[in-house]
Amino acid sequence: MPQFDPTHFVSQIFWMLICFFILVIVMTQFAVPRIQKGIHKRANYLQDLKNLEGIYLTQIDELTERMNTLKQEHHDKTKHRIDKVHLSLLEEKEAVLHKLQEDFEKARHLAREATAKEMNHLRAEIPSIAKELASLLLQNTLVHSSSQRPKKHVLS
Hints:
mainly alpha, 1 helix
């Protein structure tokens, strides 16, 4: 085999060293700087993303806090409005109840007056009714007493 011939070792080592140094020079001058530049860009990009993430998280926290504050404010305003309407309804209820009580008292008073008037009217009519009743009873008694007389039997 010719590659194991010791006479060719020196030329093979020479060309191997030349190729190796050319490869090292090309790698150090062209490939490695490009790779380092890409790694550096990627590191900067990741750092920018982390910074943006921090900014966004801060904004999210601020917005969440603002949202909670607004929510509490609106809750308080709504509760205040509801309480105000509730009080208004209670006042209206009291006014209506008072009005109904007044109307009831008026109707009650009118009913008492009408009852008293009717009672007075009936009291005024009692003597005439009593006279009529007495005369009817008297007539009825007379009619009954005359119809219940014992009949005289005549013997022939």
